[in-house]
Write a structure and sequence with these properties.
The protein is mainly beta. About 10% of the residues lie in helices and about 25% in strands. InterPro entries: B30.2/SPRY (IPR001870), B30.2/SPRY_sf (IPR043136), Butyrophylin_SPRY (IPR003879), ConA-like_dom_sf (IPR013320), PRY (IPR006574), SPRY_dom (IPR003877), TRIM/RBCC (IPR050143), Znf_RING (IPR001841).
Length: about 280
């Protein structure tokens, strides 16, 4: 379906990419999910290598901490910490070694991330995103930004959906389009920036025609080929959202959304250019 009219159809995803455990990245079965999560560094999303614990109690790989700089805040809780004062977490290192040994026996409990049908919530959409329909000004509707949220929100599990776009000539505006997730409490009235500070984690095409991230850092993405379809993969258990080239299954970017732990996340769509069409 396309953004106008507001309807989508479910799509079963192609074969998923392979994660650090050596099997399809569909997450752990519920009974063993905490084991894999505790063995995973929230920065590099891989097995901990020489895990170090900060004064706030959060753990990271030694080489990941080295990239934070001398004066930094914890990426998880934002507490001010000194990476140089971190201590080795030997208990966690032993657990990671155990998980690695158990990895061949866990194959049967990995599940493929299911595609979810994403239905757009018409009551949140900017009026001009809906054709041939009168739009009342309700509290949850975006009144300035050309945004719309998915009807269903997520707090647990793995979820993924795919989006393709048809673009006109790129002119002015904040962005041509953006797709990702947003927290339930995202501001609906007035203007705002597409960033994690506003509770938005997305990627999309800038007004310069570049694929960029819309989170804390606004990085330019390096693509090996023109992007035909974008896959959004949300993991509510480790609190990250991954963006992939749905054709090649190549990972483009991963955003950590742990700062809104416990809050519902919903599919997010932004169209900043007249004539842009997003299809799912």
């Amino acid at each position: 379906g396309e953004l106008s009219p507001l309807e989508t159809a479910p799509r079963l995803p192609p074969k998923g990419s392979r994660g650090w455990w050596g099997y399809k990245r569909g997450g752990f079965a519920p009974d063993v999910a905490p084991l894999g999560q505790e063995a995973t560094c929230p920065l590099c999303l891989d097995f901990f290598e020489q895990p170090m614990v900060l004064s706030c109690g959060h753990n990271f790989c030694r080489h990941c901490l080295a990239q934070l700089g001398p004066e930094a805040s914890c990426p998880q809780c934002r507490a001010k910490v000194e990476p140089s004062s971190a201590c080795p977490n030997w208990a966690l290192a032993n657990m990671v070694r155990l998980v690695k040994r158990l990895r061949p026996h866990l194959k049967k409990v990995f599940v493929l991330c299911p595609a979810v049908p994403v239905t757009l919530n018409g009551s949140t959409a900017h009026p001009q995103l809906i054709k041939y329909q009168e739009c009342l000004d309700v509290p949850e509707r975006f009144d300035q930004e050309f945004c719309v949220l998915g009807s269903e929100g997520f707090t647990t599990g793995w979820h993924c959906w795919e989006v393709s776009s048809r673009l006109p000539f790129v002119g002015g505006g904040k962005a041509c389009w953006a797709v990702g997730v947003a927290k339930e409490s995202i501001r609906r009235k007035g203007t705002f920036q597409l960033s994690s500070q506003e509770g938005i984690w997305a990627v999309g095409k800038s007004v310069r025609g570049e694929m960029v991230t819309f989170d804390m850092y606004h990085q330019k993405l390096s693509l090996q080929r023109p992007l035909q379809r974008l896959r959004v993969r949300l993991d509510c258990e480790v609190r990250n959202v991954e963006f992939l080239d749905a054709e090649t299954e190549a990972s483009l970017h991963i955003s950590w959304v742990g700062s809104v732990r416990g809050e519902t996340l919903r599919p997010f769509f932004y169209l900043g250019q007249e004539g842009v069409t997003l299809s799912m």
